[in-house]
Amino acid sequence: MTDDRPEAAGTARRTRRRKITAWLTALYYRSPGTIVIGGFLILLTAVFLLMGLFVDSTPQPCPPGKVCDFVR
């Protein structure tokens, strides 16, 4: 009969659990400087994505009675 305790898990299952635990440990327990830099990069990426979605970058035509960006 098998138990639900982690000690009773098979070798492959225990190895998988250790890999996941190591990955989560590496992800969440970083130095404060790395967390600040990573957060800043994520924030910068989000701002550029939102700008790309909401800022209209198509050029507007010049009104008939006005000279726009004309150089002789």
Task: Throw out a few tags for this protein.
mainly alpha, 72 residues, 2 helices, rod-shaped
What features would you describe in this structure?
This protein has 72 residues and is an all-alpha fold. The chain has a domain at 6-53. 57% of the residues lie in helices and 0% in strands. It contains two helices and no strands. The chain has helices at 11-28, 32-54. The longest helix has 23 residues, at 32-54. The mean pLDDT is 76.
Short summary:
By secondary structure, this protein is mostly helical.
Q: Mind summarizing the main beta sheet? A: none
Number of strands: 0
Low-pLDDT runs: none
Strand content: under 5%
So what's the oligomer here? Answer: single chain
CA-to-CA gap between the ends? 90 Å
Estimated structural class: mainly alpha
Blueprint (SSEs and pairs):
Blueprint (H helix, E strand, L loop, with lengths): L10 H18 L3 H23 L18
